[in-house]
Write a structure and sequence with these properties.
- It is built from 15 helices and twelve strands.
- It is of the alpha/beta class and 356 residues long.
- It has a single domain, classed as Alpha/Beta hydrolase fold, catalytic domain (Rossmann fold), CATH 3.40.50.
- The chain has a twelve-stranded mixed beta sheet with strand order 1-2-4-3-5-6-7-8-11-12-9-10, with helices on both faces.
- It starts with 15 loop residues before the first strand and ends with a strand.
- The relative contact order is 0.13.
């Protein structure tokens, strides 16, 4: 199914509705941008701990390059219980949903809005939730864009470290360390101050701590890479998946580990050079570029809508640098796609490295 580019190039302003959707595990706040169409996927987002849909995704979805996608796809932002701006403090007797339970909230959202299938876009905790949802409901998912995903449970050492952190750090400090790498925290004071302000002024501290507690007590995704001639029925994501991480992110090792556990024929790892903990905010144009290639690979968006991207040439090379080749209009699966630092500041080239 290919969606042709609209002839009118005027700025498209989607209709926006906000609703609290009831689920078995409580109400979740949802923002629907655009009107869902029968038998047509919706882009569904889920934010990270310490963020809500605005602080996590607004820079990405308000970027001018995102207009092509928004014209074709309604966007449904899902916020975890109590994480939206101005949310009231959850009562102390409330049992916050586990990560597994939060993943089962998504089917209720899909049913509420009458959606058929989704393309999931998640960050951190939200990426984990969407991956879990896709594992349990593969028929509802066309594709996944997972930023900063950690497929593992918190280990013993991590658990002890978290306890010490809880004793010695404030909640905002803990969240900043989760969202950003050491380089950003030390050098980008304005960025850190901005997100610290958002965390402390727009979100309820108790509610955020409950979400963080659920994330820190997650179970491993228990995914396994299928091996030809071996365990071809291994539990893994069935849909095409784009993994994204900045090279200065605290999640780099976790994302690379996740890539090693997924089907290489359906998975692409985009490791962004000169990029921090939130690629969608740090380098939104590059993330959007990758999303357009990814969505086109799913069979949506015509080549006409890729005109701007088609003018850029992408260079691919193996890890040992023994060979390279030029390629246009393709984000190849099962490989690592790294934007150079130069590309962040101007249209030069990108490098894609093979992964094992």
């Amino acid at each position: 199914m290919v969606l042709e580019e609209m002839e009118c190039d005027s700025v498209y302003e989607p209709h926006i509705t906000e609703e609290h959707v009831e689920s078995y595990y409580g109400k979740v706040h949802c923002i629907m941008m655009g009107t869902p169409k029968t038998n047509h996927p919706v882009i569904l987002t889920f934010h990270d701990v310490g963020l809500n849909y605005k602080s996590c995704f607004e820079t990405l979805f308000k970027h001018e390059d995102m207009r092509e996608i928004i014209r074709h796809f309604p966007i449904c932002h899902v916020e975890a219980p109590g994480q939206q701006e101005g949310a009231k403090t959850l009562h102390t007797g409330h049992t916050y949903p586990t990560m597994d339970q939060l993943s089962e909230v998504i089917p209720a959202v899909i049913k509420h809005f009458g959606l058929s299938r989704v393309i999931g876009v998640g960050v951190g905790a939200g990426a984990y939730i969407l991956a879990k949802f896709a594992l349990n409901h593969p028929d509802m998912v066309d594709g996944l864009v997972l930023i900063n995903i950690n497929p593992s449970a918190e280990g013993l050492i991590d658990s002890v470290t978290s306890k010490i952190t809880e004793w010695t750090h404030t909640l905002p400090d803990t969240l900043i360390s989760h969202l950003f790498g050491k380089v950003e925290i030390l050098n980008n004071h304005d960025l850190i101050a901005t997100y610290r302000h958002l965390i402390t002024t727009t979100m309820d501290e108790y509610n955020v701590s409950e979400f963080l507690h659920s994330y820190n007590h997650r179970h491993p995704l228990e995914v396994e890479r299928p091996i030809p001639g071996g365990n071809i029925n291994a539990r893994t994501l069935k849909c095409s998946t784009l993994l994204v991480v900045g090279d200065n992110s605290p999640a780099v090792e976790a994302v690379v580990d996740c890539n090693s556990k997924l089907d290489p024929t359906k998975t692409t790892l985009l490791k962004m050079a000169d990029c921090g903990g939130l690629p969608q905010a740090d380098q939104p144009a590059k993330v959007i570029e990758a999303m357009k290639y990814f969505i086109q690979g799913l069979g949506y968006l015509s080549s006409a809508s890729m005109t701007r991207l088609g003018s850029r040439t992408t260079s691919f090379s193996s890890i040992d640098g023994s060979r390279s080749r030029a390629h246009t209009n393709e984000l190849q699966r099962g490989r690592t796609y790294s934007h150079s630092a130069e590309d962040k500041h101007g249209p030069t080239h990108s490098t894609m490295e093979h992964t094992s």
